[in-house]
Amino acid sequence: MSTTQVSTERLEAITSSILQPTAANGVQGRTAPFEEVIGGLTALITSHRAPGTEVLRFPPVMSRALLEKSGYLKSFPHLLGCVSSLTGTEASIRALVEGRAAGQDWVDGLAATDLVLTPAACYQVYPIIAARGDVPRSGVLVDVESYCFRREASSELGRMQAFRMREYVCIGAPDTALAFRENWKARAEELATQLGVPFTLVPASDPFFGRAGKLMAVNQVEQALKFELLIPVNSEEAPTACMSFNYHQDHFGNTWGLRTDDGAVAHTACAAFGLDRLTIALFATHGLDVDAWPPSVREALCI
Ligand code: 5GP
Ligand code: ZN
């Protein structure tokens, strides 16, 4: 074991006392110290907000039709959660929930609604900006946050089914979107240094579904479309992705008819911060007692 490996006792304490486990795997309550750190991180990320950035905050659900149109079902159908509810007459619903419907459990009566659980904060942004008309080549910037859901039941610390994602999104000319992404890669390294966490910034790929997904993942790495900032939490061999920097090229531009004011298809990029994961990484690195964290880290977080 190397000297920087996080101790098992510390990881267990984060799992059981900094977070509050619940009956559902990967769904945790957040304690006061945890929320204090998330608050500090939120303010620190806000301090990096470029002038003129629009701020949008969303609840954890979004339109199913919009997510279908965005192509999510092609890439990540295995991660999606859909909101369903009971429909029917009062008598049929009562029979189901009271266990009186022959051979039917109450969940058999569920039908999908027009809502899904938001899987990534930035999906909400593109159709909203597209509906307003062309964007300048120099780009539109949006600061977005949402609770996100991914059906990833696992007991591994940092793999949550529901977590908060903060993102800066850029929509503009190809060189604008790419420059935004590159700029955020550099800034993120500064941010991680300020936070006193060990990190690496590496090319990465998304967990695309199925066999065809493996090829998509290889392409993503070859074209350097995604980078992740990794911080050791559970192990140094498999550090945890705490931020990601994505260049979507014309994917969302084509999907939503997003154009720059010269008539070209807009390109998009996003810098995503996993607030819960970053907080876990801070507790894993600096220990359970926030008051004993290095002064420079506490100063950066204003805690
Ligand atoms: P991405 O869209 O790149 O997969 O995710 C964006 C960010 O959300 C990641 O960098 C990570 O910090 C966070 N994230 C992704 N999956 C999970 C998860 O299962 N649990 C938690 N807590 N955060 C996640
Ligand atoms: Zn995004």
CATH architecture of the largest domain, please?
2-Layer Sandwich
How many β-strand stretches? Answer: 12
Briefly note the structural class of the backbone. Answer: alpha+beta
Query: What Rg, in angstroms, do the CA atoms define?
Result: 21 Å
Share in β-strands: 25-35%
Q: What is the H level of CATH, i.e. the homologous superfamily of the largest domain?
A: Bira Bifunctional Protein, Domain 2
Number of individual domains? 2
User: Residue-averaged pLDDT, rounded?
Assistant: 96
Quaternary structure: single chain
Q: Kindly identify the CATH topology of the largest domain.
A: BirA Bifunctional Protein, domain 2
List the helices and strands and how they pair.
Elements: H1 8-18, E1 19-21, E2 28-30, H2 32-46, E3 54-58, E4 61-63, H3 64-69, H4 72-75, E5 82-86, H5 90-97, E6 110-117, H6 125-131, E7 140-149, E8 162-172, H7 174-194, E9 200-203, H8 210-222, E10 226-231, E11 240-249, H9 251-256, E12 267-274, H10 275-286, H11 295-301
Parallel strand pairs: 3-7
Antiparallel strand pairs: 1-2, 4-6, 5-6, 7-8, 8-12, 9-10, 10-11, 11-12
Helix pairs in contact: 2-10
The chain binds guanosine-5'-monophosphate (5GP) and zinc ion (ZN).
